[in-house]
Automatic annotation (TrEMBL):
<feature type="active site" description="Proton donor">
    <location>
        <position position="152"/>
    </location>
</feature>
<dbReference type="Pfam" id="PF01301">
    <property type="entry name" value="Glyco_hydro_35"/>
</dbReference>
<dbReference type="InterPro" id="IPR048913">
    <property type="entry name" value="BetaGal_gal-bd"/>
</dbReference>
<dbReference type="InterPro" id="IPR001944">
    <property type="entry name" value="Glycoside_Hdrlase_35"/>
</dbReference>
<dbReference type="InterPro" id="IPR031330">
    <property type="entry name" value="Gly_Hdrlase_35_cat"/>
</dbReference>
<feature type="active site" description="Nucleophile">
    <location>
        <position position="228"/>
    </location>
</feature>
<feature type="domain" description="Beta-galactosidase 1-like first all-beta">
    <location>
        <begin position="371"/>
        <end position="471"/>
    </location>
</feature>
<comment type="similarity">
    <text>Belongs to the glycosyl hydrolase 35 family.</text>
</comment>
<keyword id="KW-0378">Hydrolase</keyword>
<dbReference type="InterPro" id="IPR017853">
    <property type="entry name" value="GH"/>
</dbReference>
<feature type="region of interest" description="Disordered">
    <location>
        <begin position="568"/>
        <end position="591"/>
    </location>
</feature>
<dbReference type="Pfam" id="PF21467">
    <property type="entry name" value="BetaGal_gal-bd"/>
</dbReference>
<protein>
    <recommendedName>
        <fullName>Beta-galactosidase</fullName>
        <ecNumber>3.2.1.23</ecNumber>
    </recommendedName>
</protein>
<dbReference type="GO" id="GO:0004565">
    <property type="term" value="F:beta-galactosidase activity"/>
</dbReference>
<keyword id="KW-0326">Glycosidase</keyword>
<dbReference type="GO" id="GO:0005975">
    <property type="term" value="P:carbohydrate metabolic process"/>
</dbReference>
<dbReference type="InterPro" id="IPR026283">
    <property type="entry name" value="B-gal_1-like"/>
</dbReference>
């Protein structure tokens, strides 16, 4: 493509001023067969660049075990084919409403610091990843024009030597395009996150002129850029669906461009947090130290291109603004992906209790004086069964789970006794001894932002009977990725009462295409179709169905597995075509 550099006031391509009109699109939240369509949607909106994070934990789920590190490179090739430049944000921390902010669960402590126990694994990871980026830089004929150092570090820490070490590492591994940082426009964030000699950018959702004025107090020169214009937002389980007015978003974009700045829409297309990779936040205001708020599976984000890849009203309003900065007429959006032909009911004819699934696909059982955490059991996403004996004879006393993260379904002598959370950690009925207690503890998503990023999951403080610790805890973990196939699990006829466990069945499809899976009466769990994990469902809402990308389905018989963690209805799940656009919103053609 040419030499991309940072000038005194502009970005330069072979010495010619250019403006980056970028949109965020995460390759890991879109089925690979649909990358080309989504990138074409960005082009049709008027963008000339795509931005993506790279989640370390997706590609190195266990220390030294790397999975499909070539995927970012394939995505960058697709961006080049679509005629887009690319900004890569490799972290190692990315936030992104992604589990643990992209950091592997096995990094226990010292993260986002200069501690060598953190930096050594980072260096090993970057040595694996960066060849996919370096070989596709603009000065080598590829689309990559910029690489970001860390991510919003000024919201977390103040040790400028840590991001400086990362910048040195990126350069030593072959990154020659400009480096940048991104932070909120507050003074303490820019002070903590920016680096001398590295382009500083800011993230915000409104008040562009004030944000850029704050940036100029720290950086009098260099191009202005909003690295994240928050044109939508994300949802939490148990909350409402968050939207941002299309006209308001367009007005903020116009203000940014009138300032002469470059921009990256976050998100241009959100996609879906498949396979249980959605993260979580902590409430409690600016301290982010309050109750857990897990993110839903959908990452629609109220983005201009919706979860199903269709243009929204916001798409057309932003396109109108961007068209004024295009060098020629904008291309029309590609046709939307074909929807599923007809509604199809899932027939579930096999069942395995949770204990049988754990026995077949779980990790080794361990016995410890105190409950081990998920991290100690090597579980990133999934469930851990803790078992403990209440000695007896003894009178009934309260049973309390200290430091529970995040949710436990409790059984006493095989009978369901209740559901506990970190905010409601004591069983309603006291427990008498002698008794056998089982606690099936589930991670609802690791915190991805704030001071509690990296906190452990599971039972982190012990089990108390009255005020006495219960020792000799037996624990066994079941990772979600252990169920990407069901080989070796013994199935029986379904019980007919919606009992927790793994259900197996089929759905017959005539005319595969984009679909939604409805799970009426189901409470909480995960679904796989043809071995592809669609993500978590939960009756808590607001999300009521799971998106099924058309490429996942095949004409004829498709395998379906439903892992239910609680008692639910025996009503059959069903596939239906993706829903029609909301009333008054044409998502297929320009209004």
């Amino acid at each position: 493509m040419g030499e991309f550099t940072v000038g005194d006031t502009d970005f330069l391509l072979d010495g010619r001023p250019v403006r980056l009109l970028s949109g965020a699109l995460h390759y890991f939240r879109v089925h690979e067969a649909q990358w080309g369509h989504r990138l074409a949607m960005l082009r049709a909106m008027g963008l000339n660049c795509v931005e993506t994070y790279v989640p370390w934990n997706l590609h190195e789920p266990r220390p030294g075990e790397f999975r499909d590190v070539a995927a970012p490179g394939r995505f960058l090739d697709a961006a080049r084919e679509a005629g887009l430049w690319a900004i890569v944000r490799p972290g190692p921390y990315i936030c992104a409403e992604w589990d643990n902010g992209g950091l592997p669960h096995w990094l226990t402590g010292h993260t986002r610091t200069r501690d060598e126990r953190f930096l050594r694994p980072v260096e090993d990871w970057f040595r694996r990843l960066l060849p996919e980026v370096v070989s596709r830089q603009a000065d080598r004929g590829g689309p990559v024009v910029m690489v970001q150092v860390e991510n919003e570090y000024g919201s977390y820490g103040s040790d400028a030597r840590y991001p400086a070490r990362l910048a040195e590492l990126l350069r030593s591994l072959g990154v020659t395009v400009p480096l940048c940082t991104s932070d909120g426009p507050e003074d303490h964030m820019l002070t903590g996150g920016s680096l001398p000699g590295v382009l500083a950018t800011v993230n915000f959702g409104s008040h562009a002129r004030e944000a850029f004025a704050s940036l100029r107090r720290h950086r009098p020169g260099g191009p202005l850029m909003c690295m994240e214009l928050w044109c939508g937002w994300f949802d939490h389980w148990g909350g409402g669906h968050v939207v941002r007015d299309a006209e308001e978003a367009a007005a903020t974009l116009r203000e940014i461009l009138e300032c002469g700045a470059s921009v990256n829409l976050y998100m241009a297309h959100g996609g879906t947090s498949f396979a249980g990779w959605a993260g979580a936040n902590r409430g409690g205001g600016e301290m982010h130290d309050g109750p857990l708020e897990p993110d839903v599976t959908s990452y629609d984000y109220d983005a201009p291109v919706d979860e199903y890849g269709r243009p929204t009203r916001k798409f057309w309003r932003l396109r109108e603004v961007l068209a004024g900065y295009a060098e020629g007429p904008l291309p029309q959006p590609p046709p939307p992906p074909a929807p599923l032909g007809d509604r199809a009911e899932v027939r579930l004819d096999g069942f395995a209790p949770l204990a049988a699934v754990l026995e077949a696909r779980g990790g080794p059982e361990v016995t410890c004086p105190m409950p081990p955490t998920f991290e100690e059991l090597g579980v990133d996403r999934g469930v851990v069964r803790y078992e403990v004996t209440v000695p007896g004879p003894r009178r009934p006393y309260p049973l309390t789970v200290r430091g529970l993260r995040d949710l436990a379904v409790v059984y006493v002598d095989g009978e369901r006794a209740g559901v506990l959370t970190e905010d409601d950690d004591r069983l309603g009925e006291p427990v008498a001894g002698h008794a056998r207690v089982e606690l099936w503890v589930e991670s609802l998503g690791r915190v991805n932002y704030g001071p509690r990023t990296g906190e452990p999951k599971g039972i982190t403080g012990g089990l108390l009977h009255e005020r006495q610790f219960l020792h000799g805890v037996r624990a066994r973990g079941l990772r979600l990725d252990a169920l990407d196939d069901v080989e070796g699990i013994a199935f029986q006829d379904p019980p007919g009462d919606g009992s927790p466990g793994l259900y197996r069945g089929t759905v017959t499809v005539h005319g595969p295409g984009d679909a939604c899976l409805e799970l009426p009466g189901r409470t909480r769990g995960f679904v796989w179709i043809n071995g592809f994990n669609l993500g978590r469902y939960w009756s808590a809402g607001p999300q009521r169905s799971l998106y099924v990308p058309g490429p996942v389905l095949r004409d004829g018989t498709n395998e379906v597995w439903v892992l239910e963690f609680e008692q639910g209805s025996a009503s059959p799940p069903a596939l239906r075509p993706v829903p029609a656009p909301a009333p008054g919103e044409d998502r297929s053609a320009s209004p």
